[in-house]
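Batch queue: ligand-bound targets. Current item pairs a single chain with 2-acetamido-2-deoxy-beta-D-glucopyranose. No template structures supplied; prediction is de novo from sequence plus SMILES. Inputs echoed for audit trail.
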Amino acid sequence: MLQFLFIQSLLAAKVCYDQVCVIATPVKSQTCFTIHSAYEGWNAIGVGSDRMSGSDIVIGWQNSTFGTTLVNLAGKGHFRPQINAHQVAYLVPLFDPKPEWSAQSFSFCRPTLVEKDSLNPVTANSKYILAVSNTLPVNVDSSSSSFGYHDKRFIFDLDATIPTAYIVHGVRDSPPRGNPDPTASIPYDQILMMHGLSMVFAWLIAPFAGIFIARYLKAQLGHSWYIAHKLIMGLVGIITVVSVTLVAMYYSQPHFSNSTLVGNIHVKIGLTVLILVFVQILLGIVSNHLFDKDRQSVPWWDQTHWWLGRTLLVLSVFNVFLGINLYYSDSSVPGFVNLICGAVLGIALCAFLYGEFVLGATIHVGYKEIPDQE
Ligand SMILES: *[C@@H]1O[C@H](CO)[C@@H](O)[C@H](O)[C@H]1NC(C)=O
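Prediction returned. Tokens below.
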């Protein structure tokens, strides 16, 4: 068997770039890959996609006894790849002798075609993504060890279904753009989670309370309504700025590419809201300063403040749900999170029905209303 494999390996499709080579060898119903790499951390190859998302990744690194820890991962768009439930790839003795320059060499085989839809088949048109790092995973002997971002990645097309005598196919280098790896101290998925949680609070909870107080509780609260409204909405503004900045700071492709339509819309709405939040806060301050207790109608700046506020709220609520679905686009649990957030929104809307029909809106016009002195 081994001899057979070795003879086969004389014919192979090979791609080299920088200081890493991939050699693909079809062997019966299997396709075997060999990686030679000068990168001393981990080396990974993904099959079936030119991005991490949707890619069947096999990662390998040298363990403490100079063997290789090999793990099948499922590529996620916004997350570190997760351990794949289907551990189909298995280590085999090296197909191709380790070159002088290589720090890590290993060979593995996996089925060329797969029975279930759960894995990408190796086809003539398969796309590949190769990622390499000079930093070893935290625990080299554990297949569930965490590991940092790649130092480089390469995307290429390769026909691994026919043995081609050492033909180098087109290789496209695609180094990560954006900000450098923030190291493993705060993984990107956690940043997104913080962004999401803070935005849920800032746009699904807080503004409803702020508007509720302004619209229905002026009479009950007296002048405190304005202080409460100002504090809550100021908090919404601050959280929005911090939360968007956080994501922008750790923006790092390809983990955060807005190449999908939904991702693009989410970012555009988010930035629009971010800018308009400042306008809205300014309008609030102006309206308060120009407040005249004897006024007979609501001036345009007040009305603009109301309508801009409502528009921002609708946009942001929509964006929160877009964000939830983006975040969970690679996983199967968005339904549950959507349900919880939908319930929060439902409670807020019920409170508004109660306010509108039971408490009634308080609008400061003429002498009937409680004057606001600030
Ligand atoms: C290192 O990897 C090899 C396989 O390449 C394995 O046989 C060996 O047990 C591993 N060593 C440790 C300490 O896990």
